[in-house]
């Protein structure tokens, strides 16, 4: 499996990249996924050129391919003007509109104050719902005061666990076994649905 992390941090070092790395560790530690990080800061010029030319440069093309082929995604943006950054949005604007359909995803953001934490549900979640990704229930927002404070580690671990479970479930090729309860058998809904398909 392949886990791709898209981070839109602008500074070096970056709290956005730090959060992305911790989320990747929490997820990959529960799967056999190989992790690839896409730093949007390094692709800013190629993203801008893509808008004017209609064609991605070599590095941007490789990043878009990585995201398209990923088994799971972690996306992390800094908050600017109470929303995701322009660089972050621009990357997903040049991505093929169907590339994220059904793809497991974890959303996260960083900001200077806890007042921006609603960016997860009011900006990021609607964006990726529109792109038809499957976003895990737990999003992670880290304000400046959250680093080293109680609660952030637990949110990171919970989100990583949810993404790992979703990646493993969607990538499994072996059908679930029938569960026996003694007097009768419980057949999973997915298995019943598969039996109704004409090609089954």
UniProtKB/TrEMBL annotation:
<feature type="domain" description="NADPH-dependent FMN reductase-like">
    <location>
        <begin position="1"/>
        <end position="147"/>
    </location>
</feature>
<dbReference type="Pfam" id="PF03358">
    <property type="entry name" value="FMN_red"/>
</dbReference>
<dbReference type="InterPro" id="IPR029039">
    <property type="entry name" value="Flavoprotein-like_sf"/>
</dbReference>
<keyword id="KW-0560">Oxidoreductase</keyword>
<dbReference type="GO" id="GO:0016491">
    <property type="term" value="F:oxidoreductase activity"/>
</dbReference>
<protein>
    <submittedName>
        <fullName>Oxidoreductase</fullName>
    </submittedName>
</protein>
<dbReference type="InterPro" id="IPR005025">
    <property type="entry name" value="FMN_Rdtase-like_dom"/>
</dbReference>
<keyword id="KW-0285">Flavoprotein</keyword>
<keyword id="KW-0288">FMN</keyword>
<dbReference type="InterPro" id="IPR023932">
    <property type="entry name" value="CE1759_FMN_reduct"/>
</dbReference>
<dbReference type="InterPro" id="IPR051814">
    <property type="entry name" value="NAD(P)H-dep_FMN_reductase"/>
</dbReference>
